[in-house]
Structure formats: C-alpha cells, structure tokens
Fold this sequence. Notes:
The complex is a heterodimer of chains A (112) and B (115).
Chain A: E1 4-7, E2 10-13, E3 18-25, E4 31-37, E5 44-50, E6 53-57, E7 64-70, E8 73-79, E9 87-94, E10 102-103, E11 107-111
Parallel strand pairs in A: 2-11
Antiparallel strand pairs in A: 1-3, 3-8, 4-5, 4-9, 5-6, 7-8, 9-10, 9-11
Chain B: E1 3-5, E2 10-14, E3 19-21, E4 24-26, E5 31-38, E6 44-50, E7 56-58, E8 64-68, E9 73-78, E10 87-95, E11 104-105, E12 109-114
Parallel strand pairs in B: 2-12
Antiparallel strand pairs in B: 1-4, 3-9, 5-6, 5-10, 7-8, 8-9, 10-11, 10-12
Amino acid sequence: xxxxxxxxxxxxxxxxxxxxxxxxxxxxxxxxxxxxxxxxxxxxxxxxxxxxxxxxxxxxxxxxxxxxxxxxxxxxxxxxxxxxxxxxxxxxxxxxxxxxxxxxxxxxxxxx
Amino acid sequence: xxxxxxxxxxxxxxxxxxxxxxxxxxxxxxxxxxxxxxxxxxxxxxxxxxxxxxxxxxxxxxxxxxxxxxxxxxxxxxxxxxxxxxxxxxxxxxxxxxxxxxxxxxxxxxxxxxx
Lengths: 112, 115
C-alpha cells in the first residue's frame, strides 16, 4: 500500500448525475494531484494543490471541480460529464510539489 | 519547457535476461528524473529517482537506472528479469531550476517478460 486511498474504486454514472471522487493520504504530504488516465493516451495532469492552494489547473473543463479542504484530503466533484470522460482517475501526493509522487489505486469511471 | 520520451511502446524479454527500458529527456535546467511502474488495475508506484550524485541509481525490486547527461538519457535496467516485472513503466522529468515543480510523464512502455 502506498498510503494513498481513493474511493470509490469503480463508478458508473449517467451524464446528468453529480458524484464526487475522494482521495486521502496518510503520509503527511503537502502536495496533492489529480490525473486522468485514458486508454492509449498519456497520463494527463488535471489539478495540483500545494499546502491546500490550487497551483495548477491544466485547462480542465468546468464539469470537473476540485476541492482540497485540508492537506490530507482531495475531492473531485463531477457533474454533467460526457462519455469521453470515462477513464481511470488517479490521485497522488508528494512531500512537496515536484518530489516523487505516491499514487492511489485510482477510480475507474464510466459515463453512460 | 521540459519533455520526456519513451521511444518504445513495448519491450519483450525472456525471464532471466537483462532488461532495459529507454527514456530520454529535455529540460532547460538541471533534471530531476523518476521512474514509476503501474501494474494492471493499480495506480503508479515510485521506483527510483535521480537528483544529483552517482549516475547509477538503485531502486525498488532490483531495478536501477543510469543517468547520462551527454545523451540526456535515464534508462531503466534490471540484470535479470522476472515474469512479475511485466507492467507499464513511466519515466518522468522535472526541471529543478523552475519553481513550478511540475513533473512531465512519458507515454509509458509496456514490459512483457516471458517465461
């Protein structure tokens, strides 16, 4: 185990649903990340938080909304998603931004 | 700007043989380099990193990587491959001279070790 947990592990949602992905790290790290991993596509960095402040937002559509209430928790709120948003969503943390990252197991999201 | 290339989508080796997974990088300053491994249905796991010092870096599971500044490469190696090493491997780079601290990942190389 890497010390980073993600829930749920699998999620199926319709395009009109609202859901949230949760990530929790037990490593005392100060930076947290959301990535999208699609089949046959490179790993895409979505958001970076450092000391609970968003420091990176890589032109992600507004239907994805991150929240970092404290240094141990990270959420990704989803609403009105599209089928092309189906992917594995990975959370990661690092001691500080830019250091080696520790990844959670991911949430496999399917949008119908 | 920073970038990383993994020129091989797929690497196949026989169990017991040495393996190499290639990575080249481009940064304007000094590189901070990483290797990660991803097993099926799992997140990425950190294997090893290079910041400064000895060009040969040792990591988890018997893997090592060699930093070559003149060739801007950071190839991952293992002297004797195991079937359980079969996975997706990612190289990543970060420019130490920037404050952004963002890592760029390669597209990944699928390693298959056959018995």
